[in-house]
Amino acid sequence: MNLYALLEKGFPKNREDCALETSEGLFYKWRDIDRAAAMMANLLKSLNLPSGSRVAVQVEKSPEALFLYLATLRAGFVYLPLNTAYQESEIQYFIENAEPAVVVCSPKNFSWVSKIAFKAGTKNVFTLDENRTGSLLERAAHCSDQFNTVTRTNDDLAAILYTSGTTGRSKGAMLTHGNLGSNALVLNQFWCWKKGDVLLHALPIFHVHGLFVAAHGALINGSKMIWLPRLDTTQLIKYLPRSTVMMGVPTFYVRLLMDPNFNKAVCKNMRLFVSGSAPLLTETFNNFQKLSGHTILERYGMSETVMLVSNPYEGARIGGSVGVVLPGVEVRVVNESGQSCGPDEIGGIEVRGPNIFKGYWRMPEKTAEEFTNDGWFKTGDVGRWGGETSAGKVPNHYLCIVGRNKDLIISGGYNVYPKEIESFIDDMDGVEESAVIGIPHKDFGEAVMALVVPKPGIKLNGQAMIDALKSKIANFKVPKRVEILESLPRNAMGKVQKNVLRQLYST
Ligand code: MLC
Ligand code: AMP
């Protein structure tokens, strides 16, 4: 079934009800969503695109950006969201790799994005601004507001999400209508979405968390969303009293705790705070419980799988554990010989289920590598069933994430692969070699740090390197700290000892 049709089944009978309220004081009804998605779907249809065409979108968060996503589903094309922080070289890679038939960008980026897109063979480049202007809406305004949602099977592609690669460039995770629909239905039940729920939405909508977990959650339940362009704790505190559900990365909770205006009264109508995308510190979990009276529900998932494991809505939510396996999903923790680990034994996390992606876009070999012979997807995360956390004994059917066997940094919920940053640094003048590591950061959980060795006789300036990187890569990937070293520590095999560096710079 087309995912849009599934979501639409949850829309309230009365399409005059408010579906979306913005911090600018705009109100959108369910009927407005339906009409806007129909007009944009008609525009896409009028372009006579081949089946399976990708619609790549790099725009600021706005209600219209959400409607564009829904229109793409409705018209049966494949949505490809791109982080607004991505810069030229990053966008060039995604467009060349995905070969989208349509690119939608912010008007301010049109000149360089369109150049890249036209060069890569894209025929249609539209603009969309956060203030409801741009050529996409101008063109859609001439289209009919009636559209028969295109039939799609569960196996048809709905979206491609690029996730950074451990070795090379990013890989496009192909998610189907069935992957996303099954997960939306499971979460609707598991988190006990109710009539009258209001979702406070402040996450970006170019990732799984903001788009597929949060927005789908509200849409499939016919629940109103309060739509904030970004995380701003003053705005959260303003709207929390009128909300019942909020989802955020751990930084959301760290920042709320630091705000003197955050208290129990602000949360009086809330029933659920969800955290995910990065580890939630037990300290944040406990302090939030004390200050707000609410127990954060932590869950675990990834771009390739959507949601896998969650603390229960009813039942114990345990700090330091990501909870129990979601209905319909299978999770196993395996040791190096591929055998299932017993309780308290650490191993690689592997998963199976209707929510697991179809594979990486045009990378059959990479896809094959990431699946076991018996069809389990290797997450690259390391965990254990049960065991002890600082909160005490964890039941054996609860999963704890203890680390990653992929060289990945998660900063404020965004993934950064050290190899990518190292290659940018190594290309800079005067650099002999570099090592990029994650160091603890009180706001972002982890922060990117670079250790750089200059070429003989060259003096490098760390701050100048940071400034230069800012114009090349997305800001969240730019190291917060650069240290210049004479050499990098290496083991007997000549491999850089990142664990030694992490220990050295972790305080
Ligand atoms: C912004 N900066 C970051 C950053 N976000 N640096 C490191 N990590 C981040 N996440 C940069 C800014 O550009 C700025 O740089 C400086 O850090 C301070 O910025 P800020 O104004 O404090 O940041 P802010 O705009 O408030 O953004 C922080 C944030 C945001 C945490 C709210 O990053 C965010 O919304 N993260 C959510 C990511 C997310 O949705 N992840 C889900 C992935 S899906 P300078 O140099 O200009 O000072 C997934 C699967 C799953 O993982 O399980 O959900
Ligand atoms: P992404 O590739 O952006 O989808 O990020 C997915 C990764 O985020 C997972 O593989 C985990 O490493 C991490 N992750 C998501 N949720 C959690 C969580 N609750 N605790 C720890 N790590 C998490």
Which band does the percent of strand residues land in?
A: 25-35%
Instruction: Describe the sheet with the most strands.
Output: 9 strands, mixed
Class from helix and strand fractions: alpha/beta
CATH class of the domain at 408-505: Alpha Beta
Bound molecule types:
malonyl-coenzyme A, adenosine monophosphate
Number of helices: 15
End-to-end span in angstroms?
Answer: 51 Å
Overall 3D form? globular
Radius of gyration from CA coordinates: 23 Å
Which regions are unreliable across 5 or more consecutive residues at pLDDT < 50? none
User: According to CATH, what is the topology of the domain at 408-505?
Assistant: GMP Synthetase, Chain A, domain 3
Query: Any idea what the CATH superfamily of the domain at 408-505 is called?
Result: ANL, C-terminal domain
Mean pLDDT: 96
Strand order across the biggest sheet? 2-1-10-9-11-12-13-14-15
The overall strand count is 25
